[in-house]
Structure formats: C-alpha cells, structure tokens
Amino acid sequence: MEKFLKFIKDNYNSISVISFFLVTALLILYLLPREGKFRYEFQRGRPWLHETLIAPFDFPVYKSDQEVRAERDSVLQNFRPYFRYDGLLYDSVMERYYDNLENQWKSYILNRFNLTEEQFSGFVTDNHELISLFDNFILFSTGFYDEVYQQGIIAPGEVADEVISEEMSIVIVRNNIGERTSPENFFREKTAYEYVRNGIEEWTPSMTSGSVYQEFAAFMSDVEFSDYIIPNLHFDPVITNRMRQSLIDDISLARGMVQSGERIVSQGDLVTNHTYRILESLRREYEIRLRGMNLNLVLLGQFILVFSLMAVMYLFLYYFRREILMSPIKSLFIVFLLFLMVSVPIIFVRFSTINFYVIPFAIAPIIIRTFYDERLALFLHTIILLLVGFFAPNSFEFLFLNYVIGLVAIFSLSNLHLRSKLFLTAVIIVFSYSLLYFGIAVTQERSIDTIDWMNFAWFGANGLLILTTYPLLYIFEKTFGFISDGTLMELSDTNQPLLRKLAEEAPGTFQHSMQVANLAETAVREVGGNPLLVRTGALYHDIGKLSNPGFFIENQTSGYNPHDSLEFEESAQMIISHVSRGVEMARKHNLPEQIIDFIQTHHGTTRVQYFYRSFLQKHPNQEVDLQKYTYPGPKPFSKETAILMMADSVEAASRSLKEISPESINQLVESIINNQFNEEQFNDANITLRDISTVKDIYKSKLKNIYHARVVYPD
Fold first, then answer.
1. Which 3 state secondary structure label does DSSP give 518?
2. Could you give the residue ranges of the DSSP H alpha helices within 78-127?
3. Residue 706 and which of 255, 397, 552, 618 are 20 to 30 A apart at CA?
4. How many Å separate Cα 127 from the centre of its chain?
5. How many CB atoms neighbour CB 112 within 10 A?
6. Is the peptide bond before 634 cis (omega within 30 degrees of 0)?
7. Is 334 buried (19+), middle (13-18) or exposed (0-12) by CB count in 10 A?
8. How far is residue 691's CA from residue 677's CA, in Å, rounded to a whole number?
C-alpha cells in the first residue's frame, strides 16, 4: 500500500493529466449520437467513386428540404386564420338595447314634458304619432344591428390587426362549419358603429311632421349606439393551428419509390441532381433503420475512434509540447476547450433547429494561437473537427469549410492586443466561409438559383460570435493563469507603478532594462517566440534592485560604491538577493507567473563573477563556498527566458568595455554567451544551436549600433 501511495505521489502530475484525457474521452463518448452512419461519401456534380450501388431494400425518394419548404410555403400562402362566430351574443345585446332604449325614451318624455308617472299613459294615447315614430325607429335600427352582427364584428388582437392591415380574408366558423369570408363582408368595431350610425342618421320617415321628427331627433342624439357594438368574431388559435398543421401534414415528403435490387448508380457515373436525391433518401432511410440496432457495436466503434483521437492528441503534446503535459492546469485547459468545442455541436444537433454553420469553430484555434502557437492551434482544431465530423451533416463539406477557416483564423490573427485585429479576422472568416461555400455550391448544384442564400446570413452570425473570443480570453486567462497580448501590453506600459518607480529611483537599472528589452525582443522576432512576452519580462526582470539601487553600478553616479565597506561574500549576497526580492515585489503587485519566470531565471545558476574572482585573488589558499556566489536559479526553461538571460548578460557586460570597437563587441558577445550556455542549458530552454548563432549576430549588430550612436551623439 505504501508503495502504491508513493507511486501516486511521485507521479501525481502525470496521473492527473492522463485522467483529464480519459474523462474527456468518456464524456465525449457519452454525448455522441448513437445513430449509425451511411458508409458512402458523395457529392452532387462529382463522379460516384464507389462500387455500383444496388438498392438493399424498398425506400421512398424523399424531396429536398428546399422542395418541402417551397410546397409548405405554397400551401400556407392561401391559408387564413379561423375566427369563431358567437351566435348567442346578438340576442343578449338586442335585449339590453330594447330595455335601455325604452327606459331612456320614457325618461326623456317625462323630463321633456314635465309629466308624472300617472300622466305618462295619457300622453302616450294623445301623442300617437310620436310613439309610433319610436316603435318604427326600434324596428328600423335593429335591422342595421342585425345586419352587422350577422356578418360579424372582428375582435381586436394581434391576428385581427394583421388581417385588417393586409385586408386578408378569414374563415368564420358557424355551427362547426367554416366559411371563408372576404374583408368587405365582416366589420371592425369602428366600421360597424359607423355603418349603424350612418344608417340611422339617414333615416327620415315620411309619415311624420317636421316638429315631431325634431322632437324625436333630440332624443336620438342622447343614445350611445356604440355601446351595443360588441365583437362576435374571436380568433381561435386551437382550430387555426390544427388546420395549419393538417395542411402541413398532408404534404408528401416523398416522390416515388426505389425497389429493392434496383440499380441506383454505377461506379464512375456522375451524381446528378436526381441521383443525389435518391442517394440522400437511401442514406436517410438507412440511418433510420439503424436506430436501435446493434447499439453496442456502434458504441464500440465510437470508443475506438474517440480514444484513438485523444491518444493522438496526447502523443502530439508529449513529443512537441511536453511542458503542457507537465502542468495539470495547462492540460486541463486543452481538454476543456476540446470538450467545449465538441459538446456544443452535439447539443445543436440534438436539440436545436439553428443552422450548423452558426457554430464558431474558429474560436478554438484563435484562443490556442493567443496562448500558445500556430502548430498546436492547428492540431487541436483538426482533432475537434474530426470528432465533430462523426455526426456533422454533410461531413466532407463541414470538414473542408472549417479546416480552411481554421487556417485563415490562425494566419490572419496577429497582434491580438489591437482591438481592430479580431474584428478584421471575423470579417475575413465570414468572407472566406461565403466564398468557399459558394464555390462548393456552384460545383455541386451547377446553378446559382438553387443555392441556399440563407446560409450566408448564418456565416454572418458566425462572424459575430467570433467576437466573443475577447471575453472568453479574459475568462480563460484568469481561470487557468495564462497571459494574453492585451495583458502584456498593459504591463509593458512604462506608466505602470512598478516601472515608474524603477525609472525614478533606479534610473540606471531602468535604462538597462529598456536596452535588454530591445535586444531580446529583436532576437525573439528572428528565432521565433513571443516578442511581447520577452519585452515585458525584460522590463520587470531587475525590479528587485529597487530595494537597494545604490549597490548596483548602473545607479552609482557620485563615485561612492557601498561595496567598498562590505566583505566579498556580503556583496555577492546583496547582488544575488535582487532576484528573490524582485519575485517578492512582483507577487505583491500581482504580476503574472510568466513575468515572474523572467525575474527568477535571468541569471540562471551563474556566479557573481566579479566578487568571486576578487575573493580568489585576495584569498588564493582559502577554500571558497561556491553557493554564496551562485544565483539560486532556476535555469531558463523557455526560448524567451533564455534569450532574455543572454541579452541581460551581454548588455550589462558591454557597459564595462574599456575600448568600444566592432572587434571588442564581437569578442564580448561570443565570450559571454559561450561561457553561460552549455548544451544542457540549450535543451532545457528549448533553443537550438542555430538559434544561439542567430541571437549572437543580432546582439552584435544591435550593440554596435547603440555604441556608434553614443560615440557620434554623446549625451
């Protein structure tokens, strides 16, 4: 048990990383659709490259999605909403109309002629003409109401507003029988009221005298005829949706049948539009029949494919980016991004009706390109596309489009700290998608008319989603401890508090750091690496000197050297301590670990040569404690930290040159770099001998330019 626990402890990082890969593979395997895949790949307008295909069973020839949509649109073009007619409403409204009108009439007579209740009966008997006029009016006005209610008054609402604005006909359901009615044969509330009101105002009965009619007209002016206009046509969403769905369901999805044993296509035949539809129908029917059959075999096949791709991903990192596998957090980031970019398309396929082209697969290579390099970005992008290709519709088209788009994203993206760069990349991606899709479409369809132009809108949406890379970069940066170009640009601003303090309190060190930054950045641009990272690291690599700036020669201006009063060991420790103090300052100011790496490694495990040699000269027979004159390290472990260490040593040593000449500079650079770096350090830093030779040439050239400027243009 102890051996097992010791093994776990000693190999914790490796076990964690392998576990991440295994868990990711299992999660992807769990999410993958279990449907079988049609074994043949084919394209419209291209030759059939497989053996002669014979129909294995009877199957219908399905119409294309465009044909089904066209038929659906044609059927629904003449479809009209259903409104239910309320036949009982008219009787109740008219009953209220009679009662209210009689009461209003009686009240009017009593008030107009100052009558009592007892006198009303006598008035009715004596004024037969006026009372007859009222009775005739009742009969006449109800005729208008009857006509309005018979045709129907449409209730206000969203559907009614659309019907009225577009002057559409509707279907009125009376006694469970639907009848299509044109717009002029039903009323709105406003038009119904106007119809009734206009009819009543034009009514002039010939049997009445003028004075009697004037008396009655005064009564009519107080009647609110609009109170009796109530909609009796109400939109019925249940019947409407049922009838609409019934029309859609009646659309035939197939046209014709292919009989078992019938030849579909021979090897070498051109896949015409007709043949393409038959092949698509066979693929669809074949995959439907596979559902629920041999699921264990499908699972076994997917297991082999998924774990093979994950193993390839692991081996790539093992051979080319082993530092990622050495860090569980970095490995977790890789597998998490891979899982994210595979699981989202699976969810789209299962639950979403949104077009597959809207998924921004280019986000993954953009993010990896930002934090790592182009090679890893392209390889991870390839693994993602191969995994998604298992279930993506039109697999060849999907792989071709998105692989090329990944290349476009990687090649077009540089200097992500510029806000316009990602936007420009998104525009290029949308243009590339559109151009490639158009090329594939015209090759397959051989006609512009049959291209699905809606896909270009999805490409535009894809480009907009690419812009979400900025917030994603920030989230990943803070979660996994990465550092982006945007953060490096902020940190390299000399107005940052630490750099401003360095310039004020240790101006010599600040100038030294600026020169080192220029040297290292130029070298990294030539040999490959992150120039912005090495420049930022160079600006902060000596911030530890802020604790005692006067102990460093570049900050001594008065001729006084505090080391004169110290022992050699004490002076060496004072110099060496600027590394640990720099790390403390950096962590106090929340600098990223990537910048702290430059502070820790910029002297590696070299010695403080001046004080070490001075001690040997003064005490030749005394044993020396090498540890007291040696920097604690670690050694540079990346190309950027190695180049910075060389730049720091070369620039510092060049300040002590007594004679400035091209020969002395060449000799200095060769001596410093050859003495500092052995083969083991080259391997640790992932920097080649050719890179070292290039760095030497750059440093020689840059230093000659610097010192030539100082001679020609002295301060």
1. helix
2. 89-112, 117-126
3. 552
4. 85
5. 11
6. yes
7. buried
8. 12
Q: Average pLDDT, whole number, for the chain? A: 84
What pLDDT, on the 0 to 100 scale, is given for residue 158? Answer: 83
Q: What is the pLDDT of residue 321?
A: 86
Per-residue pLDDT band at 620 (split at 50, 70, 90): confident
Domains of the chain listed by start with CATH number: 2-36+293-473 (no CATH), 82-247 (no CATH), 485-712 (1.10.3210)
Residue 261: left (phi > 0), alpha (psi -120 to 50), or beta? left
Percent helix, strand, coil in the chain (nearest 5)? 70, 5, 25
**What is the predicted pLDDT for the residue at 7?**
67
CB 337 within 8 A of CB 368: yes
Q: Helix, strand, or coil here: 255?
A: strand
Amino acid at residue number 425: T
454 contacts: CB under 8 Å, gap ≥ 6: 355
Would you give the DSSP letter of residue 294? S
What is the maximum alpha-carbon separation in the chain? 153
Distance CA 344, CA 326 (A): 28
User: Given CA atoms 63, 66, 69, 74 in this order, what sign does their dihedral have?
Assistant: negative
- Quick one: tokens of 388? 């998604």
Of the candidates 599, 598, 605, 597, which has an alpha carbon nearest to the alpha carbon of residue 630?
605
Can you tell me the distance from the alpha carbon of 680 to that of 339, in angstroms, rounded to the nearest whole number? Answer: 37
Asked if residue 425 lies in contact with residue 466, where contact means CB atoms within 8 angstroms, the answer is yes
Alpha carbon separation from 397 to 275, 366, 404 (Å, rounded):
19, 21, 11
What's 62's DSSP letter? E
Q: Are 444 and 44 in contact (CB under 8 A)?
A: yes
59 and 258 Cβ atoms separated by less than 8 Å: yes
Rounded to whole angstroms, the Cα distance separating 412 from 58 reads 50
With contact defined as beta carbons under 8 Å apart, do 398 and 440 qualify? no
Rounded CA gap, 443 and 46, in Å? 8
Distance (Å, whole) CA 388 – CA 309: 12
What would the DSSP string read from start to end of 163-229?
Answer: HHHTT--EEEEETTEEEEE-GGGSB-HHHHHHHHHHHHHT---TTS-HHHHHHHHHHHTT--GGGG-
Q: What is the pLDDT of residues 333-376, one digit of tens each?
A: 999 999 999 999 988 877 766 788 899 999 999 999 888 888 99
Selection from 265, 261, 267, 289 nearest residue 277 by Cα: 265
Q: Show the 3-state SS of 613-682.
A: HHHHHHCCCCCCCHHHHECCCCCCCCHHHHHHHHHHHHHHHHCCCCCCCHHHHHHHHHHHHHHHCCHHHH
Output Rg (C-alpha) for the chain, integer angstroms. Answer: 44
Q: Write out the DSSP string of 298-362.
A: HHHHHHHHHHHHHHHHHHHHHHH-HHHHT-HHHHHHHHHHHHHHHHHHHHHHHH--S-GGGS-TT
CA angle, 313 then 317 then 323, to 5°: 150
For residues 616 and 604, what is the distance between their CA atoms, to the nearest angstrom? 22
Residue 220 token pair: 């009519």
Q: What whole-number distance in Å separates Cα of residue 635 and Cα of residue 684? A: 8
Q: What DSSP line would sit under 534-574, residue for residue?
A: HHHHHHHTTGGGGGSGGGSGGG--SS--GGGGS-HHHHHHH
Does pLDDT of 169 surpass 60? yes
